[in-house]
Amino acid sequence: MRPSTLLARLALVSALAIPAGARTHIITFGKALPVRLFVGPSEENTVEIKVRALLLDGNIREFTTGEPHDVTDRLFVIRRAYRLNDQLPEDGRTQPLWRWQRGGWLLVDRETGRVSNVALPEFDPYYSAATWYRDYVAYCGVSESGERRFAIVAEVGVKKAVLRRDLGPAQGKGQPDSECAPPEWQRQPTRVTFRPAGAQAITFEVHGHAADPALDEDR
């Protein structure tokens, strides 16, 4: 069979494998740009973070910060970033006063191009440092009152947390990601360790949709 005939047949097979009406989407990231994140109780200090545009078919869909985590070969998650207008009515400005903020996490489907928010119970965009493993994410959540903190393990697509354990009073230090260090994952068995500020580390074993404290002798 001639190469041209073979290529034509392969092209036909590929076309038949794509459902009628389906559209192929192209998802890319723009150039990383340094921006200022205002921190502290009075937002008197700044730290630098880098943001990138999430482009869907060449158009800006969202802004993001940090690196993506591949959940499957089709789905990935990434932290959202956005600009908030800090202008007061009495400022007398004609243009918005934009300030960058970190948001929650986005779930991106490479095949359909769909971008959606990941539901994370008690996730605080300012205080919660999240780490991912497979389709699990671990972080220290903060109550609505800001007085308590919790060890949280959530699973993509599941509304109820796999783990929610009280870690005591929140520290409220005013610095980002200050309630806990980023949790540490390990496999076989699947475990995650939380290191809350001012308290002892605690490890949980995760299995299915539940989690239990790991026994000391197994650590």
Question: Would you write up a description of this structure?
Answer:
The structure is a single chain. Mean pLDDT is 89; it is low at 1-18. This protein has one helix spanning 3-17, and strands spanning 27-29, 33-39, 45-56, 59-70, 75-85, 98-109, 115-117, 131-133, 136-142, 148-155, 163-169, 180-186, 191-196, 202-207, 210-213. The protein folds into two domains: 22-87 and 95-118, no CATH class; 119-219, no CATH class. Strands 1, 2, 3, 4, 5, 6 and 7 form a seven-stranded antiparallel beta sheet that branches. It has 219 residues and is mostly beta strands. It contains one helix and 15 strands; from the N terminus they run αβββββββββββββββ. The N and C termini lie far apart (61 Å).
Percent helix, as a range, is under 10%
Structural class by SSE content: mainly beta
Number of extended strands: 15
Residue windows where pLDDT falls under 50 for at least 5 positions: 1-18
The tally of domains stands at 2
Q: Oligomerization state of this entry?
A: single chain
SS element count, helices: 1
| Radius of gyration from CA coordinates | 22 Å
The general outline is: flat
Q: Strand content of the residues, in percent?
A: over 45%
- What is the overall pLDDT average? 89
SSE ordering? HEEEEEEEEEEEEEEE
Largest sheet: number of strands, sense, barrel closure: 7 strands, antiparallel
Q: Report how far apart the termini are.
A: 61 Å
